[in-house]
Amino acid sequence: MFWQKEIETLEMKSLRELQLGRLKKTLAQAGKSPFYSRLFQQNRISPEKIKSLEDAKNLPFTTKEDLRKEFPYGFLTVSREEIVRVHSSSGTTGRATAVFHTQGDLNGWANLVARCMYMTGVRRGDVFQNMVGYGLFTGGLGFQYGAERLGALTIPSGSGNSKRQISLMRDFETTVIHIIPSYALHLRKVFDEVGLNPRKDTKLRIAFIGAEPHSEATRQRIEEMYGIQAFNSYGLSEMNGPGVAFECPQKMGMHFWEDDFLVEVIDPRTEEILPDGQEGELVFTTLNREAMPLIRYRSKDLATIFPEPCPCGRTHRRISRIKGRSDDMFILKGVNIFPLQIDTTLMNIPEVGTNYRVILEREKENFQDRMIVQVEVRPEYFQGDLWQLEKLRKQITEALKSELLVTPKVELVEPDTLPKSEGKAVRVLDHREM
Ligand code: COA
Ligand code: AMP
Ligand code: ZN
């Protein structure tokens, strides 16, 4: 049942004591970074004065903007010789973020992912196929090391190449997969194309689905399509990646690991702390990180804490599904996209006119998600021949792909044919059914 029974079932009082001890260490460690030493000085904060978890509620927030401003090393608390891995978000200069790990950090992270996987019933002897992006995405290496720590045979298949994914599943008799929910829907269609049925022609029994919002209906659909149990997996690169919160076999919310993260829910507008049971923005403090501790990090993810004890016996509280975002970021094919990235890329191309529009769709036939970017071309360029326009369309597609890491379908339109934009939000129309 348990990977670390003592910790997973620790009674609340001892869990809070553990958190306080780790919080004090974290604050002392954070103070060694250029960013927090400045922040503590400016706000007259002395970490030694934090005597209770309550006291921590007055500490200032850390935001993604702070991470961007301090890119790359402003949050680092150890010497460069001690860091062994970096995960970095996409984004042009000035928009990127980086999270560094010591070997100790990586060990802690792998342990958390192993704990999550074990909780759902994965054991030595299972064959785990990790069908998400490797490289700088945290879902690839994060699950790889977690699964190896648990002792499962791990296939680092990465994303894409659907037919090969199916052959790997059959050749190595995969029992557990990690897959982005929208892709799981699409992959089922590819099974049809090759004349196979995953319920009969594979040994699959468990899937971890996450990295993008999805509904209970989508989970059930995936379970039905593949004949498996699907568990919601939540994480964010700033808090390592996967392994932050995960469903247990009860599938009634995701346990977040309170020995490693201090979690609060705030009203994103007033920044006031909300009681358990109320929906708001998740705020995280790392409790066990060396290279880059983060204090009261605003995730922008909206969810609710369920405080009720879980029948599985774990004492760590649970969060609901992620209900949305308090900023304008959206996720396509498991990749985070900020509308500003699209805006900056388009506005750097001289032929592009004033207006553009982004439409997100899920194709009905084969569940393929796509992003259509309609772009007005300036009148002087619209006169050009078709070959010129096609060249421009390709150039815009390439520029967006290299910035966003997903390929958009670009459509060029005549000037003044798109609705005038009134702020960023109206430019993205999301027609996908989650
Ligand atoms: N996960 C895995 N594979 C995916 C995918 C997803 N979310 N979305 C699409 N694919 C597959 C496509 O089906 C296609 O394979 P196929 O032609 O063999 O069927 C291949 O990847 C390319 O997809 P396409 O939509 O043409 O490419 P793109 O350039 O728009 O997107 C991806 C490129 C899919 C590689 C990129 O979006 C990606 O890496 N997504 C995964 C991100 C991720 O792992 N996030 C987790 C972070 S923890
Ligand atoms: P990244 O930092 O690239 O790993 O992206 C993290 C973001 O992905 C989170 O802040 C969420 O917005 C989103 N995300 C991750 N897991 C889930 C999930 N299970 N459900 C909904 N959104 C998720
Ligand atoms: Zn539980």
List descriptors:
434 residues, alpha/beta, 21 strands, binds coenzyme A, binds adenosine monophosphate, binds zinc ion
Structure, explained:
By secondary structure, the chain is an alpha/beta fold. The chain has 13 helices and 21 strands. It has helices at 5-8, 12-30, 34-42, 64-69, 103-119, 138-150, 162-171, 181-193, 198-201, 216-226, 339-347, 379-382, 386-404; strands at residues 83-88, 98-102, 127-130, 153-155, 176-179, 206-210, 229-236, 241-247, 254-256, 261-266, 280-286, 297-303, 305-306, 318-319, 324-325, 330-332, 335-337, 352-362, 369-377, 409-413, 428-430. The strands form five sheets. The protein has a nine-stranded mixed β-sheet with strand order 4-3-5-6-7-8-9-14-13. A four-stranded antiparallel β-sheet has the order 10-11-12-15. Strands 20-19-18-21 form a four-stranded mixed β-sheet. The longest helix is centred in the first third of the chain and has 19 residues, at 12-30. It is globular, with a radius of gyration of 23 Å. The two termini are 31 Å apart. Bound molecules: coenzyme A, adenosine monophosphate and zinc ion (ZN).
The low-pLDDT segments are none
Query: What's the Cα radius of gyration?
Result: 23 Å
* Estimated share of beta-strand residues: 15-25%
Total DSSP E strands? 21
Q: What is the makeup of the main sheet?
A: 9 strands, mixed
State the distance separating the first and last CA atoms: 31 Å
Oligomerization: single chain
The DSSP helix count reads 13
What characteristic shape results from the CA principal axes?
globular
Helix content: 25-40%
Structural class: alpha/beta
Task: List each distinct ligand once.
Answer: coenzyme A, adenosine monophosphate, zinc ion
The residue-averaged pLDDT reads: 95
- Placed side by side, the strands forming the largest sheet appear as 4-3-5-6-7-8-9-14-13
